[in-house]
Amino acid sequence: MVTSKELMTLGAISRATLNNYIALGILPKPVVKTPPPGGERARKIGYFPDDAVQRITAVQRYKDEGLSMLEIAELFAASDETNESGPTAAEDNLLHPVEAPALTEMRVTLASLRNAAYMVNYNFEIEWANAEATSGIFGLSDGFEPEIEARSFFKLALNSDVVAPCEDRKELLRFHLAIAKIRLPKRSLAKLSSHIGDEDLQLMQNLYDETEEMHLSPVATTRVNMAATESQPNWQDIYATVFREGVLFVHQSAEAPAESVLALLSRREQLIRNLVRNRQPVLTPLCVLVADLQDSVKICAELPPEEYFELINQIWSITEPLLRKYHATQGKHVGDGMVSYFFPQPDRNYLLNGFQSARELKQEMRQLSKEWQLRKNWTNELYLNIGLNEGEEWFGTYHSDTNLEFTVLGDTINHAGRLSDFARFGSIWATKNLMGKLSAEEREKISFGIRRTDRDGQEIRIPASYSRLANLIDLDEGKYEKFRDIGTLPITEVWDLKTDSNSGD
C-alpha cells in the first residue's frame, strides 16, 4: 500500500490530478487508516494499492498516444470488468496493450486500433489515416502531402505499390466507389487524369458505371484478398460507416473477430470526436463567413440577462441547421458572433453555399427581429452583419480533453471578420477575389454592386461593380481608422441571390 503523498511523488502528479483519477474510476477510492506510530503526523491517511503507480504510468502513456481522459477511463473500466483476477492483472493488460491477448476483450479505441483505418471527406480525400493505413495501404513512408486536394483516395490507391498488385484490386476500388457515388459525380474522376495512367482512368470510369450506389445503414462491409496474384492469400474485411463529416474505413484480417471493430464503429459520437481531434492540419481552399450582431452592447444593456442569453441562443439555434444544410463547419462562437467555413463539395459549389447561407441568415434574422419587436414592444432591429471571403489556408483544430474548436489560420478569415465589422444593417459584403472565383454563369445568379450618392444626395446603385474600402469611408475619421489595414481591399455588397438552381436542399 502507498500513501496519497507517496503516490503523488512517485507518479509526479498533483493533488487535483489524483482526485480527478479517482473521480474517473482510474484509481480506487483510498482506504483511510490511522498512520503507524512514529510516522505521519496526520490523524488519518489515505492508502492506495501498490499497482496505483503503474496505473498512473499507463495513463501517461495513453495520453501520449492521443487518448482523452474519458477514453482512458473506459479502458480501465472495461479491463477491470473482464479480468476477474483483480486490478494487477487488469493493469498488466493496460501496460502491454499490443501484446496482451485480453486486448480484444477490452473496448477498442481509435488510438488502440492496430488495423489500417482512414477517413475521407465527400470528395474522397484523406482527412485522417493511422500509420497502418499510411504505409500498409497507400505505401507512403513520408506521410501525406499537406494540400487536401492531393489526397484523393483513388489517386493514392491507384498509385500505391501495396494496392497495385492486389488480387482484388478492382473489388477494393468498387467498394469505395459504391460509397463515393452517394455524393461524388462521375465528372469528378476527370481530376484524376493528370495523376494516373489512361488505362487506370478508363478502369475507374468503367467501374463507376458498373457500380451501384451504396447507402450505409449503419455499416457496410466487403471481403477482399489484399495479397498479390498467386501469393499466399491475405483476406481482409473492410468496414465503412458514414458520418456527416465523411466516411471512415477500417481494415481487419478476415480471421479476426468482427465484434471489436463493430463495437468501435457503434460509438459514433465519441468516434467522430476522436477522428476530428487526431486529424492533422491541412492546406485547403475554403470560403469563410463571419457574422456579428449589430449593436450587441446596446441590446445587452436593454435586455435582462436571461432574455439576452435567450436571444443569442435563438440566433445560434436558427443558424446551426441552416449552416448544416449548406455543409458548413462551424468555427468558434465569440459572444454574439459566429464563424463558419465552407469547403469544396463534390456535388455543389462551396462558394455559392457561402452566399446562400448568408442570404438565408439575413432572411431568418428579419423574422426573428419581428418576433422580438412584438414581444418587447420596441423599435430595435436585429441585424447580423456578414463578411464573406475565400482563400487557401491551413485548417485544423485546437483541443483539450474536453473541448474542441475548429480554426483557420491566415488572412482569409481576418478579412472576412473585418468585412462583417464594416457591414451595417444586415448587409452582406464580399471580396472581389471571392466573386472572381465564380464562373460568369454563377455570378449571374448574384445581384451585387456598390452604392453611391449622386449630386442631389440621392443614393444610386451601380450593379456588378467593386470599390476599395478606402473609397467608401474616410479612414482618417476616428471610428474608421481600424480599417486601414484593409483599405485597399476591393469589395462589393451582395444584394440578392437567385435560388432556383443552386439550393442546398
Give structural notes.
The chain has 505 residues and is of the alpha+beta class. It folds into three domains: 2-105, Multidrug-efflux Transporter Regulator, Chain: A, Domain 2 (Orthogonal Bundle), CATH 1.10.1660.10; 117-278; 284-497, Alpha-Beta Plaits (2-Layer Sandwich), CATH 3.30.70. Helix 4 packs across helix 5 and helix 13 (305-325) packs antiparallel against helix 14. Strand 15 (446-453) and strand 16 form a beta hairpin. The N and C termini lie far apart (63 Å). It is built from 17 helices and 18 strands. Strands 9, 10, 11, 12, 13, 14, 15, 16, 17 and 18 form a ten-stranded mixed sheet that branches. Strands 5-4-8-7-6 form a five-stranded antiparallel sheet, sandwiched between helices. It has a three-stranded antiparallel sheet with strand order 1-3-2.
